[in-house]
Amino acid sequence: MYKKILAGLGGAIALNLLHEIVRKNCTNVPEVNKVGEEALNKALDTVNMKITNHDQLYAATLAGDVISNAAYYAATATSGFNIASDITAGLGAVVLPKQMGLDDAPVAETTQKKLLTVGYYLFGAVVTKLIYHKIK
Q: DSSP 3-state helix, strand, coil percentages of the chain (rounded to 5)?
């Protein structure tokens, strides 16, 4: 079980590294972090809390993203190569924000952003799968 968790963590870190490198060096690319930040503050609103410091909000969102993606990848990408579940994760990241009352523009404003978002999640799954095969 720990090997699946390690592999999932590796895939989640790879996904976030790719996202950050592309986001900081290119234009018209997804900003998944903005959706996460909005979602976190919206959730905190339900308990009368809010993170106003941008660096703290970014760090909390990044930590939550890595943990949730690691758990998802550990459960899906280490059990056979199920490309459908990996593509579904990316599609969820594109479609669900609007359904949840969040601004979807950071991930769905253009076709390029949509395709890259799905690609990021698929990349994380592939990295997870490669790590898992090396350590199991």
A: 80, 0, 20
Whether the predicted pLDDT of 125 surpasses 80: yes
Q: Which two tokens stand for residue 15?
A: 């996904």
- pLDDT per residue over 63-92, tens digit each? 999 999 999 999 887 776 667 777 888 899
List the chain domain ranges: 2-31+68-135
pLDDT digits (tens, 9 = 90+) for 22-34: 999 999 999 999 9
Q: Look up residue 82 and give its amino acid.
A: N
Residue in 53, 133, 121, 134 with CA at minimum distance from that of residue 88: 121
User: What does the alpha-carbon distance between residue 92 and residue 41 come to, in Å, rounded to a whole number?
Assistant: 20
CA atoms of 44 and 28, how far apart (whole Å): 29
